[in-house]
């Protein structure tokens, strides 16, 4: 059984296709989905969709790249939202050092406030960190954040991975490792402990090698697992079982509220 630990199935790209996609996922043994929110406006849509798909788990948060319209009072509502809806994490939150993103000081303020919400609720976080690992470490340290979580789309060094591990985080491993040019990411993965990572697609983004320009879906998870198995010298079944264990220890509320 596989889980996609990061997919934006609430995005419009999936409108009209979700039922069929869920059935196709089932046929490939992709049985669970963690869908993190991105903007405040998207929270209500996600809450409605999560009711319809029992295999989804959700997280709410304000994504750093989409903070342009965001207001601090939305962070105040984050706690209520997480308590009202059954969540497994707060996210996706973090820092995005990419052209077009809002000022880093503003991002850090939002990130720190959202870390406080997660701490108060004892929830792990889904970290979005692009070209910003040092600043993310700084914010985690200043917030004295202890709940851990996942570093979504991890693409750092082994040393950075170890530092995140020390703070209770696992690394999110996705389609990047399927590219022949991603030798550094593959080397880091080869050296990671088997309990240090989980699988994700970031659908509809981050298509696998050979599928550039296409919409990504959780159907890519078995293929990612296949690459991980080759890199780690494990069987695909071992990768599936190990990453499921890793997911459950990262998100202890995964099975809460299940039928
Ligand atoms: Zn995402």
From TrEMBL:
Metal-binding recorded as keyword: yes
GO molecular-function term, one example from the UniProt record: metal ion binding
GO cellular component, one term: cytosol
Residues involved in a divalent metal cation 1 binding: 6, 8, 92, 202
InterPro entries per the UniProt record, alphabetical: DNase_TatD-rel_CS, Metal_Hydrolase, TatD-like
Transmembrane segments: none
Superkingdom of this protein's organism: Bacteria
Keyword tags: Hydrolase, Metal-binding
Name by which UniProt lists this protein: TatD family hydrolase
């Amino acid at each position: 059984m596989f889980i996609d630990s990061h997919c934006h199935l609430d995005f419009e790209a999936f409108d009209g296709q979700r039922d069929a996609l869920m059935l196709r996922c089932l046929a490939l043994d992709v049985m669970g989905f963690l869908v993190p929110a991105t903007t405040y406006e998207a929270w209500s849509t996600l809450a409605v969709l999560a009711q319809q798909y029992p295999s989804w788990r959700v997280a709410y948060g304000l994504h750093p790249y989409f903070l342009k319209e965001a207001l601090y009072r939305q962070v105040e509502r984050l706690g209520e939202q997480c308590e009202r809806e059954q969540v497994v994490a707060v996210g996706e939150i973090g820092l995005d050092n990419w052209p077009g993103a809002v000022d880093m000081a503003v991002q850090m303020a939002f990130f720190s406030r959202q870390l406080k919400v997660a701490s108060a609720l004892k929830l792990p976080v889904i970290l979005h960190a692009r070209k910003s690992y040092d600043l993310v470490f700084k914010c985690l340290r200043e917030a004295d954040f202890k709940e851990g979580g996942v570093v979504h789309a991890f693409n750092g060094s082994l040393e950075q991975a170890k530092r995140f591990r020390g703070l209770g985080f696992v690394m999110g491993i996705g389609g990047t490792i399927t590219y022949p040019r991603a030798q550094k990411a593959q080397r880091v993965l080869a050296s990671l402990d088997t309990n240090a990572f989980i699988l994700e697609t970031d659908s509809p983004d981050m298509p696998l090698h050979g599928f550039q320009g296409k919409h990504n879906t959780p159907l890519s998870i078995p293929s990612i697992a296949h690459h991980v198995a080759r890199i780690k010298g494990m069987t695909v079944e071992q990768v599936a079982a190990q990453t499921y264990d890793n997911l459950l220890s990262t998100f202890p509320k995964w099975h809460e509220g299940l039928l």
